Amino acid sequence: MKKAIVSTLLSLLCATSYLSVAVLPVKRAAAESEERYACALSRNVYLYGAEDEESGLFCIPYTYYVKVLSEGAEYCYVQYATDTAPYSAVYGYCRTEQLHFVDFLPERPFLYYPIDVTYTLETGSAFPAGEDVFSEVTLTYAYYGDYAVGSSVYWYVALDGERGYLPRTRELSYELNTDFEQTEPGKDAGGSENGSPVPVAQIVLGVVLCLLAAGVAYYLLRPRRALPPPTENESEI
Fold it and tell me: What secondary structure does DSSP assign to 54-65, as a single string?
């Protein structure tokens, strides 16, 4: 009976120590779904309308991702953005060699960045007077990325379900992703291949639990010291 109790206790302690080390609250693994993503780690990773470098639509925003739908030797068929207003998903191709593939699902794969553009209306002598007359109007576009033509740069944008280009009037500043820095293909953040980084606190916890299990086992299973034989006086009592 005692051995059965010890065996059960040891099993529970070892299982707990294993889980404390193996179960890590890190990024969602790509294995949880069939989705796969790749990051644009240069500022000239174009999304093309066809498998042709003459069909460029826009550059993927730096450090953001495309969802890889099909991987080829030269081009990948990808998706950028989702059908979430004011955006809509754009499908096309990226050069495979320009993509940095990751083995996790990024928390913020696509850049959602509305930009305001103000247009000033020309006024003249025939322009009606009054406070209810608009002299300018501001429109909000959904920004996808830049497109360069020679020395000129345009924004690829969407408005009311329509996509097209606007001349770039200013530099855009947006928050960059950094999650791709924590893993490399085939390596974990610590540089070991095919593994996951284990926090030191979890390793220590696992060691402590294993030592505790060994101590409990020794206490319960240690041999009992034999009692000394009774003396003659004790035998007569």
Answer: GGEEEEPPTT-E
